[in-house]
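Homework help thread (please don't just give me the answer)

Our assignment gives two proteins as sequence + structure token strings and asks us to describe the second one. The first is just a warm-up. Here they are:
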Amino acid sequence: MINRPLSPAERWYWLCDQLSPLNCIVRVHIAGAVSCADLERAAAGLVAEHPLLRVAVAAAPDGTRPRFVPVKDPRIPIRTVTAEDPGRWEREIDGVELVTPLATRSGPLARIVDIIHAPGSAQECHDLILTVSHIIADGTAVMEMLRRLLELAAGTPSPEPHDPLPPPEAMLPRWIKGVPRTLQTVAWAVADQIATAIARPRRLVPDTPVPAERRRTRLVHRELDAEQLDRLVSRCKREGLTVHSALTATMAIAVAGEDARCVTLGSPVDFRAELVRPVGSRDLGSYVATVPSHIRIGPLWATARRAQRDLNRRTRFGQHLALISMLRFMTPPSVGRSARTIAMVDRMGPGNVCLSNLGRFPFPDRVGEWDVSGIQPVAGLSISGLLVAVVITSHSALSWNFSYIEGALIRERAERIADRAVEILLSSIGG
């Protein structure tokens, strides 16, 4: 049972979510019949396995001192939709799951949507959408939760329940939390601000300022097929670069437009393996920190090299761990006292434009009697930035889902950036 105060990072995600939904979402396509009883049994199995699916968040009357509290009878709600349109999953995520908050006060902090096509026929198939609060999970954890949901629905026996884990900050290496490291981090931040002032990187400017409490995330979906993906991987190998660096450079160039020489772009870094008690991908919790890079714009592959060097340098220094550690000084005590922090995030936060690449994810092609395909992770933005792209390589395709703040970016602009990014990438690999 979990009954404890939220850690600084958890409190920050909780504050964001109160202003605007901060949801992590994953969709998968299932060929075959899936009964409601199968899903209900699987959802109950997930709840039994994960202590963080048996909590809600309670706070003092003035909105301070939030804490996880146990839920008496936690059940993940399942919403059923019958549809003929195979693209209905995209509209459900865009119009419902991204903009509807989870029930943090009553729990559990997850929900399921089952979109049924051709029910009762030989062509029956399902689009399954799992939405989880970023307070208790990141993209990797939600992917693993969805995989586990399918396994349980297919009849895989449930293992022993997971033991509750401490919050992420409690498992950081001791060296990252000491006074010398704090002073070094401050010195790094000052030096980085000086370098930023010299480089004058462009940040994405909103079309219209949108107050924090009115920000809603919307979706633009793009995808590379198997042939395009193979060409991209082959070209990156020839260049001696990661796919992430190529995607980062592509997005930076697309955002920069014609006149920017330098762009700030954030990269979420997974730190599970760096904790004192290493955490597995199936353990719930948010184990990512967004590291900003100031990327000088030029030809794609030269830009990608600069992006890769900058991110490697920052992670070697431990900037991602330092950012998590410093949240204890930066997270406001309540929404009512968060205005200054929100203004700072808008002005200089690392998530203004962000690329989250989950890499090659080994999601199964078959679970039980079902063929499985089309895995799609999508991120809610809340107040953390204006545009984020979540990328995953799975099922012989590269999915590229752009989330943006409605109004702050008009849809035509968000689509233009997404299309330009794909066009730049394909033209560079002979597509």
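The one we have to describe:
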Amino acid sequence: MCPPDPRAQLTHGQVVEVLVANRLTCPAPLFRVGDWAAGWAVEEVFGVEAGLLNDDRLARALDAIAPHLDKLAGSVAAGAISAFGLDVARIRWDITSMSVHGSYPEAGQDGDYPQIRYGHPKDRRVDLKQVQAGLGVCADGAVPVHAKVFDGGAGEVAQVVAAIQTLKELASEKRLLMVADSKLYCYTNIGALLDAGVDFIAPVPASKISDEFWAGLDVSQAAEVDCTAEREERLPPEQRGRYRVLEDVQPVPGPRKRDPVLQVRRILVHSSGNAAGQRQARDKRLAKAAAELEKVRRGAGGRYYGTAEKIAERVGVIAKTRRVASCLRTEISTDDSGRPILAWHFDEQVLAAEAAADGWYALITSCPAKRCDAARVLLEYKGQGDVERRYGDFKGPLAVTPVFVQHNRRVAALIQVICLALLLLCLIERQVRRALERDGDGRMHGLYPNGQRVRPTGRMILYHLGGLQLRLGGATDPPTVLMARGVHLHLLDLLGLEATRPRWL
């Protein structure tokens, strides 16, 4: 798709391949990639001289692939699905933001590519502009099979419809199940999914259901689900969280009165673990608020809280920061000498209603009950954390943020290259885990100093393989891969790689 200049010494494919390798091993700014290549045997493995990888050549490669990002990402994903036999019938979708360093004035940006703008950054760097990326992660090994770059100011809700067709094409003849976060919940998205015949699961925003509704539910009437969180697998059964489900119907009215009301299944989920966490968090908030309110009460009429206005102002700050405004009741009066007096208490009825709602949340789905009962809906949704874990890889070892590239066209291309690196990272992790699961429980020794048996992550696998060294040979002496630890050979064996063939490393 991107033929090189006949005068160029490297093809764009070679440059992108090296960039992907850089992100998987030791991410560096574009002007440092040449230095990295000199120390990481890039010439011996890829046949690319380190001196040719200057930032101008890398930038030209990004410019060349920028007009073809969707086609490139789609073709590579299709190749991965075919080569590794990925099951893409279930795909989890989410969007994240990447902070971008630089001014990037709007007048200087290319309108054909995602715009770098201020938005609502996930990392809370409101002082920086951003772009956004959406990932479609299949349930089979949590591999990202779809990635797309969006404007920094684009709303997450509006991107769901555009992703439906692409994900549906990836699923091919299989019926797609799309699992998303609460941003999917809007009349337009739900209507588009129903019209497209795409099954979906998404949480209902907390604001859509009142505490009074939750307080009217009876947990004992809910059916228990055999579901254990991965973090609790080693705990005794009595210490693990328990899940229960009920089912009813969620009406979704349109923005206009004449719009037909959509009806979808609603799964009401109660988690004992969530209930305990919410109860503990509320107790901490109340305790901190009580201590601060008592300090104001004792200081009323003194140096800092000498007037009713100052007391009211401080109480308002406490109510907002400790999130107790709904249950806090206060009265400010004066004594015989005219000194202000503060009286306060927490409304027990409000607290009881909040406590009754602890642990409850709701999911909506279009999956038919005959094919996916309430318990199955919950189990399908519980894997949504895979997307968040991939964003951790995206912004962590692959170092996608912060980004500093001169043009928004190149920013989009660089992020797409990093998405390719993330795809390979996840395929490596999937292959190692599948090999371990064929012979055991999917865990292995040697990744941590204490000998703990763990499920290997892509980050940990590449960390250990980064310790391999290549000894250069001569005319009659081939290059040799030097292994310092047994875990190197074990990982290569799990990946199906021959240690005697360094060109594959």
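TA reply:
I won't write it for you, but here's a hint about the kind of observation we're looking for: The chain has a mean pLDDT of 87.
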